[in-house]
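User: quick one, sequence for these tokens?
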């Protein structure tokens, strides 16, 4: 009897230790006051509320860029802009550029047009409640009013042959169009100098291929414009373990040589224990921390120097129900560091 009691006690202590190491509760009401990040949305955050934001379709002109950033053939592109309830053009708003994954398009996050051409074979239609989650976060004071922009890395619905080239569309076409029209901290001044000066109020996040775009285009070429980055469900490349680890050298070289003066205030990574892209993402993230040295301090105490995290959600796969939690998590920490 005594031996059985000791076994149960050891088991209980082991469970307690595991729970203590997890950043959040496993229940749906996972908005633990002792932790920043959750594994599931809090109850009620999918509901429609009276103080709802607005999603607007915007057209802009972009180009087929070469590897040197030289603009070629022009094309009209589409993106969507979420503005919070009570949007006031005389105010200044933080702004998040939020990317979809492969086979979807700029309307994915808001569930307005589900697929890029041919994307039906990659995904199943699923109800999206992105706007409701953001509306509820703002209404409950979890995050401040924020503008969210959803562009696409597809050109005329054909995937670009090089995701890194998206950096030119982002810097030259998307950000200038959006921030000349909407009320951000740039105050309508979309010169490169001012967009760099206001980087603390600008973030990027993307899922799957949008995460790969985040590494190749944003980490690789836009850190001077973005102080916050979120990578959901994918590492920078789809390679073996050695290739994934080696690509960290490429990212760190660009960070230390081209963007040494531009610290990343917080870098969020999200995956799930059932995610098909989990292994590569964990390997790449670990390599960044190992090789990055003083660039990274892992943890959720963002007010005292922690600037990166990997949130590994139990039972979550490569799907919207994980990515909407990732969005909740990034909005819970982005723009809060002075």
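Assistant:
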């Amino acid at each position: 009897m005594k031996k059985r009691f000791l076994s149960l006690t050891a088991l209980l202590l082991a469970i307690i230790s595991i729970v203590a190491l997890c950043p959040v509760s496993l229940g749906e009401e996972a908005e633990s006051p002792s932790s920043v990040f959750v594994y599931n949305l809090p109850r009620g955050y999918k509901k429609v509320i009276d103080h709802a934001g607005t999603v607007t379709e915007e057209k802009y002109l972009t180009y087929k860029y070469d590897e040197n950033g030289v603009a070629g053939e022009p094309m009209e592109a589409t993106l969507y802009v979420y503005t919070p309830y009570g949007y006031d053009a005389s105010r200044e708003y933080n702004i998040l550029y939020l990317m979809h994954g492969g086979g979807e398009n700029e309307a994915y996050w808001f569930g307005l047009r589900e697929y890029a051409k041919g994307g039906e074979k990659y995904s199943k239609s699923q109800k999206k409640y992105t706007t409701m989650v953001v509306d509820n976060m703002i209404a409950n004071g979890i995050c401040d009013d924020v503008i969210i922009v959803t562009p696409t890395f597809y050109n005329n619905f054909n995937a670009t042959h090089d995701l890194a080239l998206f950096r030119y569309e982002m810097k030259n076409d998307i950000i200038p169009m959006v921030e000349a029209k909407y009320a951000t901290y740039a105050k309508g001044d979309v010169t490169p100098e001012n967009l760099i000066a206001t980087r603390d109020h600008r973030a990027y996040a993307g899922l799957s291929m949008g995460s790969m775009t985040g590494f190749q285009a944003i980490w690789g070429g836009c850190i001077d414009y973005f102080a916050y980055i979120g990578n959901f469900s994918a590492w920078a490349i789809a390679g073996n373990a050695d290739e994934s680890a080696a690509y960290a050298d490429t990212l760190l070289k660009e960070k230390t040589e081209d963007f040494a003066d531009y610290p990343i205030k917080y870098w969020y990574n999200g995956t799930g224990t059932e995610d098909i892209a989990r292994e590569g993402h964990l390997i790449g993230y670990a390599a960044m921390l190992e090789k990055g040295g003083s660039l990274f301090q892992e943890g959720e105490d963002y007010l005292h120097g922690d600037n990166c995290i990997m949130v590994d959600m139990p039972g979550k796969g490569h799907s919207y129900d994980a990515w909407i939690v990732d969005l909740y998590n990034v909005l819970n920490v982005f723009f809060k560091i002075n």
